[in-house]
Design brief:
With 247 residues, this protein is α/β, with parallel strands linked by helices. The chain contains 7 helices and 4 strands, in the order αβαβαβαβααα. The two termini are 30 Å apart. It binds zinc ion. The site of zinc ion has 7 residues, from helix 2.
């Protein structure tokens, strides 16, 4: 029993009776442009891959952990203007997460969002604050890598080559804005990604490989398992409300 959506309600109830309450992972992705070479569901697929990887490595063989279906449309207003991008915005996303967590039954002792999209940071911060105030904690693990390019670059392209290579159009991969995110941020905050990159890429996807993606994914899964199995570290990766890598 790993995928909540494939589990029946009595199955879950019986398992909880026998073993105790479960940890619920909710992958949180995005539907947003990822340049000419990656699909719009890139962040969702990465979040799902990390969540399923966590389930495989979870102590006691996922005995008390289930992975929900992903939330695929989130806060991606910064990609407005690129065809296919969908967004509910920060306020609605935050409220939705609060409702999901606070309405979840006692069968879930922990609820953890596995976030693949940096643009969700404000919503996650607001939701975790509200959930804490309501005594129903929401935990967050967000994808972040040191020295990574920001969007649809080598990191995300490598991850996608490892996760869904059939969806990567490497022949169309072109560099986008090469500057560090800190330099791009002021313009992006005002005019979105389109103000700094005509093709929607922040970084350079050339040189991405499936082997690098496989290593990156393993590192991300290890990082998440470490965070989630060490009680004192559970809140350390709460997403900061600033634009972060891999949005
Ligand atoms: Zn992305």
């Amino acid at each position: 029993m790993t995928l909540l959506g494939e589990t029946t309600s009595p199955q879950l109830a019986n398992a909880v009776t026998q073993k105790g309450p479960f940890t619920l992972l909710i992958p949180l992705g995005s539907t947003e442009q990822h340049g000419p070479h990656l699909p719009l569901d890139t962040d969702t697929r990465i979040a799902v891959a990390v969540a399923q990887g966590i389930a495989k490595k979870w102590p006691q063989r996922s005995a008390r952990l289930v992975v929900a279906d992903p939330i695929c449309i989130s806060a991606a207003d910064e990609h407005r203007g690129f065809a296919g991008t969908l967004s509910v915005g920060t306020k609605v996303l935050s409220e939705m997460l609060v409702e999901i967590v606070c309405n979840a039954g006692p069968e879930f002792e922990r609820i953890v969002v596995i976030n693949g999209h940096g643009g969700n940071a404000y919503a996650l911060r607001a939701a975790t604050d509200t959930c804490s105030a309501r005594q129903r904690p929401l935990e967050v693990w967000s994808l972040r890598l040191d020295n990574a390019d920001a969007h649809a670059g080598r990191v995300e392209t490598s991850l996608m080559l490892a996760i869904a290579p059939q969806l990567v159009r490497l022949d169309l991969a072109q560099p986008g804005a090469p500057e560090p995110l800190t330099e791009l941020l002021p313009k992006m905050m005002e005019g979105g990604v389109g103000a700094v990159s005509a093709n929607g890429v922040l970084g350079d996807p050339r040189g991405a490989t499936a082997a690098a993606g496989t290593r990156l994914l393993a590192d991300l899964i290890d990082d998440a398992v470490n965070q989630l199995t060490q009680p004192q570290r559970r809140t350390e990766n709460q997403t900061q409300p600033e634009y972060s890598v891999n949005d």
